[in-house]
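On clarity, I found the account of how folds are encoded harder to follow than it need be. Since the whole study asks how a given chain folds, the encoding of that fold should be made plain. For illustration, here is how one protein appears when written out as sequence plus structure tokens:
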Amino acid sequence: MKRDIYLGRQKIGSLWLAPMAGVTDKPFRILAGEQGCDLAFTEMISGKALEFGNPRTWGLLDIKGESPIGVQLFGSSPSVLAAAAKVAQAEGATVIDINMGCPVPKIVGNGEGAALMRQPQLAAAIVSEVSAAVDIPVTVKIRAGWDENSINAPALAARLAAAGAAAITVHGRTRQQMYSGRANWEVIAEVVRAVEIPVIGNGDIWSGEEALAMQQQTGCAGIMVARGAMGNPWLFAEIKAALTGTDYQPPTLEQRIAMALRHFQMELVYRGRDRGVLFMRKHLAWYLKGLPRTAPLKKGIFAETCPGAIAAMLQEYLKSNR
């Protein structure tokens, strides 16, 4: 896989972090970047909420000091999304991504996210108007289709490319699959053949070996990592090693606990004591996934509200498992 991708005249690396609600906030994006992520995206941001100045939504747009950085927007109004894209560009976005793949019922119920795959004319209009509104690349994230009987990613991708999309990310599952079953990498390969712009493959990337297999099977220009990075920011380093044929050493127990503690401290500073503790519970559980005898530790973490006590639990676990 090529090391860099050109989005228009802009050169960006080929290993991307997917936008994930409750996961890809500023501290997590920083940690992913340190491990080799080339382009991270904010959590999905409502164009309409940004237009109305929702404080929480503005919090999601905290991208100062990050470059390159992608802002993912969702909505169904071309004019609203175009206005939101202008705001994101003014805040420092490197790339604007339009979400056309979110499968969550409350999103698709509003005609947004994956629902746009059933409205190709509107989807193309959104890309056209947003692209005209900003001076930075506009990309789109889609799924294979709505369901197994309506796989339309290749045709939609061609239409979006013609409307001005600089790249297309394809999650190889349908909307009906949500996050279950296997991703269909062949659909990604079909999109690669259907367009001349870069195609980023997404779905079932949990290891460097799987990333390499996706690239070889689909010919995609880049890889987007999603759930595989939760509690495992080292996945980016592992993938880069696999793609370049270099050696990779997985993190030791000491390194895993040290990263968990560092992430915890970053979130406490970023969110404040109480919100930081609540936010990090799931993240700490992800860092501990696959490690032996962690059930009591996880139970203790979810019951504790004192940051110092949680840190002490993690340090004691490390001490007892050396």
In short: Residues 128 and 163 are 5 Å apart (CA to CA). The first helix runs from residue 26 to 34. The chain has 14 helices and eleven strands. The radius of gyration is 20 Å.
